[in-house]
Amino acid sequence: MIHFNDSERPFKEGDCGPKYLGSDSHSEWGVLVLKPGQGSRLYGRHFHKVVAETFYILEGSVHFWIEGKEFEGRVGDIVTVEPHEKHWLENRGDGDFRAVFIKVPFDPTDRHPF
C-alpha cells in the first residue's frame, strides 16, 4: 500500500507546474496547475515518441494546441495527446487551471522539443 496526501509532494515551480504523485512500470501521473499566463513558456512545446498523455480538467480552462488544432479545454474535459502529436497548452484565463495528468507508458526521458 502507498498512502500520502498530495500536500506532501512539491510542485515543480513552487506553487504551480506539474506535481508528480505516482508512477509504476506502466504509467506516471500527477496534477498540473497553471497560473494565468503560464503554459508553454515554462514547459515548452514538445512531443513524446512513445508516451500518450491524458489530461482531466478539474478547474479553470486552458488553451490547447495539438498538431495545429487549437481549442479551449474546460472543466470536465478529458484530452489525450497521442505519441508523436506536437502539443502545448497555456492558461489564458483569469484564474488557476488544474488538471490530473496520466502518462502511459512510464518513460520520464520521452520529452522532445520542437
The CATH superfamily is identified as Jelly Rolls
Q: Mean of residue pLDDT?
A: 94
Q: How would you sum up the major sheet?
A: 5 strands, antiparallel
Which range does the strand content fall in? over 45%
Structural classification: mainly beta
The figure for the number of domains is 1
- Provide the CATH architecture: Sandwich
Write down the Rg: 13 Å
Distance between the termini: 39 Å
Strand order of the largest sheet: 1-2-9-4-7
Q: In words, what does this structure look like?
A:
By secondary structure, this protein is mainly beta. It has one domain: Jelly Rolls (Sandwich). The chain contains one helix and ten strands; from the N terminus they run E-E-H-E-E-E-E-E-E-E-E. The protein has a five-stranded antiparallel β-sheet with strand order 1-2-9-4-7, with no helix packed on it. Strands 6-5-8 form a three-stranded antiparallel β-sheet. Strand 1 and strand 2 form a beta hairpin. It is globular.
